[in-house]
Amino acid sequence: MRKILYTLTLAPLALAASPAVAQTASVTDATGDFLATYAGPHAADLDVTSFSVSYDSVAQLFTLGATFAGAIHAETGGTYIIGVNTGTGTIHPFAALGQPNVLFNQAIAVREDGTGNIGATPLNPSWIAIAGNILTVKVPLSLLPSTGFVPGQYGFNLWPRLGTGNNNQISDFAPENATLAAGVPEPASWGLLILGIGAGGAMLRRRRSTRVAFG
Hints:
This protein is of the alpha+beta class and 215 residues long. 16% of the residues lie in helices and 33% in strands. It is built from two helices and eleven strands; from the N terminus they run E-H-E-E-E-E-E-E-E-E-E-E-H. The chain is globular.
């Protein structure tokens, strides 16, 4: 079972001019849930336990984060593929694995040695960080141009795999049979956002009132 969490951060000064939301979405994934079709070794660094997506609209930068059941070791020989749906995600090759809703039109490949690429474009090594069981990848929006979605609607899915051949080399998916987007909160999160904006407005009104009374 997965659990999706959305974090909303409101900046009061930004609200005074134009409301802004910095948001990160994350999903948890059960430990040891290797796909039944996976034919490789059950290495802990191929077992996803969480995946997160964040978009910074000012820097125009995605930050993708993942944790695994164990420390990442280059000798495992694994590659972390992150499928991205930028609006025309018609590629859906995983129905036979029970994952027909993993849609993408771009793919980011990050290897356990800290190198990576998007298609034929290498990623700057400084954008990839590996610390124990944690992987962080920063990707500029310029490398993921829209094909219909705004950046907050982009869908992401992470799947570790060994080799680049058959689908029986894929060990796990996060999220399961879905994609994760940073900017589409659940209804409860929208409620929190509205309350936050209301609280920010009330605070500003109190400040104005104070200036009038004691100015």
